[in-house]
Amino acid sequence: MEERPETELISIPATPRVSTPEILTPSGQRSPRAASKEGKSWTPTSFISPRFLSPIGTPMKRVLVNMKGYLEEVGHLTKLNPQDAWLPITESRNGNAHYAAFHNLNAGVGFQALVLPVAFAYLGWSWGILSLTIAYCWQLYTLWILVQLHEAVPGKRYNRYVELAQAAFGERLGVWLALFPTVYLSAGTATALILIGGETMKLFFQIVCGPTCTSNPLTTVEWYLVFTSLSIVLSQLPNLNSIAGLSLIGAVTAITYSTMVWILSVSQQRPPSISYEPLSLSQPSASVFLAMNALGIIAFSFRGHNLALEIQSTMPSTFKHPARVPMWKGAKVAYFFIAMCLFPIAIGGFWAYGNQMPPGGILTALYAFHSHDISRGILALTFLLVVFNCLSSFQIYSMPAFDSFEAGYTSRTNRPCSIWVRSGFRVFFGFVSFFIGVALPFLSSLAGLLGGLTLPVTFAYPCFMWVLIKQPPKYSFNWYFNWILGWLGVGFSLAFSIGGIWSMVNDGLKLKFFKPN
Fold first, then answer.
1. Which of 72, 351, 461, 485 could form a disulfide with 319 if both were Cys (CB 3.0 to 4.6 A apart)?
2. Cα–Cα distance between 370 and 380 in angstroms, integer?
3. What pairs with residue 30 in β-bridges?
4. What is the average per-residue pLDDT within 197-212?
5. Residue 248 CA, distance from chain mean position
6. Could you give the maximum distance between any two Cα atoms of the chain, in Å?
7. Is the pLDDT of residue 430 over 60?
8. How far apart are CA 102 and CA 330, in angstroms?
9. TM segments (predicted)?
10. Are 46 and 17 in contact (CB under 8 A)?
């Protein structure tokens, strides 16, 4: 008798009611399966129940039990786009909880944390701490929602934020709602990182060179170009999993410089005539707009939700070991350290500088008030760590843009990008971000506006997605809770955006983050 291949012995022909077991390719690609038409989801072992096995003899029972274990190890039959194996986000699926922690921490802590004391200067102690605490808990809940919804529909993995939005809101409406803020977070953050990284490199050079330096220093734009060139070189790593080492470097440097900045600030003598009364203007309406802008800054400090599904899609997922388990484990560790960075910076920075906090944030204040009191070596190390963190963050925030470029190319040519095409896309994105930064050098001062425009991605859309996809019982606590949170997020988004625009127009906050005195 001719021996049949192993895959034939275990495969079950796909029908509208039954699906074939999942087969993993070297890149982690999973074979399609038909969606179940019943409300109850089908699993590979649902037909091998104790009731089914009870009348069967021991040898047959042992075979079926072994088959059940194999099917559970193989997975839950995920349907993916065949082109996913060619794209940088889903090309590699060997991620784990450690990678998730590195990526989430690298995406969650960065330059936006340095301007949190500016928000406290407008809100004061009570409202500042309360707003930061509520925002932290709120975004942690919406992150949990995204992790759970990654495989909410049996046989489907939502590998990108826009894909999940399309599943919840519909094909066209999902694109309209999610594409702009996610692209804005990706490209806008990359541009802001070029501005901040370039200016920090300039300050680092000035500190290391010293006051007696006779060399001809580079201009600010030339430092932007240096930072952009370094970022483009690092961006040649092929996929999201391949930058896990860079994310680890970014996470370590973020924790280190965040700790150094607030410790150095609180250890120095506070400026004279310091006050902790919230900054306000003569007109009540103007003070309200300032408060809205401050809340937008707090909202902008919590970023990374636009990358949560992308990070989770780099992990293998099986019936017994779904990807949501290591993802949530890594996310919890990451957001513990994020809290250890954000809260001390906000509280310590406001305590050290009060309402004299410059618009550029705590690092600007440290350089302006204490550049002569702190040793050059410590200051230089702090600025160097900021540069390393900006270089690492640029990679993970640029990855969705790289993925979009390559998705357009592969859909038209039906073949993967060559190394030259892939490199060309990344060079193009890097220099486009550079030119935008040169044309709009005040972009880094738009934290309040950016926080308002992108707030739905973090605080509102996940709540709506949960209700529309999971469909909790109508008028239940879960139903009310998520609808209320979602609409509150939309309302805050509009208010914070108006506050950010008002602050730009009326207060002229077109200042760079690290402008020395």
1. 72
2. 13
3. 24
4. 84
5. 15
6. 94
7. yes
8. 8
9. 114-141, 173-196, 243-264, 333-354, 374-398, 419-440, 446-468, 480-505
10. no
How far is the CA of 321 from the CAs of 15, 85, 318, 327, 357, in angstroms?
A: 26, 21, 5, 11, 48
* Alpha carbon distances (Å) from 364 to 115, 159, 303, 370: 9, 38, 22, 10
- What is the sign of the dihedral through the CA atoms of 165, 170, 172 and 177? negative
Question: Taking a C-beta distance cutoff of 8 angstroms, is the pair 362, 261 a contact?
Answer: yes
Rounded Cα distance between 187 and 401, Å, is 7
Q: In this structure, what is the dihedral angle of CA atoms 270, 271, 277, 282, given to the nearest 10 degrees?
A: -170
Q: Which residue in the block uniquely carries the two structure tokens 């600030």?
A: 265
The candidate with the shortest Cα–Cα distance to 311, out of 470, 465, 157, 422, is 157
User: What are the residue boundaries of the structural domains of the chain, listed by start?
Assistant: 92-507
517 pLDDT exceeds 70?
Answer: no
Is 87 within 8 Å of 410 (Cβ atoms)? Answer: yes
Residue tagged 């150094």 (tokens): 260
The domain 92-507: what is its CATH number? 1.10.4160
Tokens of 429: 């994105």
Look at residues 489, 472, 405 and name the one whose alpha carbon lies nearest to residue 89.
Answer: 405
**pLDDT (tens digit, 9 = 90+) per residue, 305-325?**
888 999 999 998 877 888 899
Close Cβ partners of 139 (under 8 Å, ≥ 6 residues apart)? 302, 305, 458, 459
Six-digit token string for 214: 């006779």
342 vs 154, higher pLDDT: 342
**Helical packing angle, 477-507 and 284-300, nearest 10°:** 120
The identity of residue 191, as a single letter, is: T
**d(Cα 307, Cα 250) in Å, to the nearest integer?**
16
Which residue, 210, 260, 218, is CA-closest to 386?
A: 260
Q: Are 331 and 146 in contact (CB under 8 A)?
A: no
Q: Which of 386, 353, 466 has the alpha carbon at shortest distance from 109?
A: 386
Long-range Cβ contact pairs of 264-268 (< 8 A, separation 24 or more): 264/366, 264/370, 264/374, 264/378, 264/382, 265/348, 265/349, 265/352, 265/353, 265/362, 265/365, 265/366, 265/370, 266/348, 266/351, 266/352, 268/352, 268/369, 268/370, 268/373, 268/374
Distances (CA, A) of 342 to 110, 131, 151, 206, 330: 10, 13, 31, 28, 18
The reported pLDDT for the residue numbered 367 is 81
Token pair listed for 181: 């803020």
In the block, tokens 């009191």 appear at 373
As given in the structure block, the two tokens for residue 427 are 């060079």
DSSP line for 234-262: HTTS-STGGGHHHHHHHHHHHHHHHHHHH
Tokens of 284: 């009540």
Contact of 302 with 458, CB cutoff 8 Å: yes
- Comparing CA positions, the residue from 236, 214, 233, 216 lying closest to residue 225 is 233
